Amino acid sequence: MSQMEPSISLDNKQMEIIAFRLQGQEFCVLTKIIREIRGWSPSTPVPRSPREMLGVMNLRGVVIPIIDLATKLEMMPTVPNERSAIIVAEIHTMIVGLLVDQVSDILTVKASQIQAIPEVVTSFDRGFSDGIITQENGMICFLNLAQMFRANDTEAYAA
């Protein structure tokens, strides 16, 4: 699959997603890229790192970058609290911790449930999202982490 193709196909194939909240909004990613979910713990700042990088943490002997996902999405920065979580994901070949407000659920959805994002904003980078999942209690934005974090971008987070 090329980097410009969505990570999903629009059929009835079932897939597991992990849903999480950022500033009152629901987002999700495929569980197959998730290594683990951890409670919030402070990270060690790294001088001159990208704005969205909070720092690094030691994950069982491996130093990984911690990214404020809200800042990466150009939202207000996350203020971590006791409900905050770090989603440890493998993006390309790099392990990255993603700070989120809280993890909501692990769901099984059909690929056919994912709808395209309406073309209302010309400056929106469609590569960040594979679409929207509608549910009875709201909508979930399906993020494409491989597009958000291009292979050469992750080099900026290397510790």
From TrEMBL:
Coiled coil: none annotated. Residues 14-154 form the CheW-like domain. PROSITE patterns: CHEW. Pfam families: CheW. This is Chemotaxis protein CheW. It comes from the Bacteria. One of its GO terms (cellular component) is cytosol. GO terms for biological process: chemotaxis; signal transduction. The lineage of its organism: Bacteria, Pseudomonadati, Pseudomonadota, Alphaproteobacteria, Hyphomicrobiales.
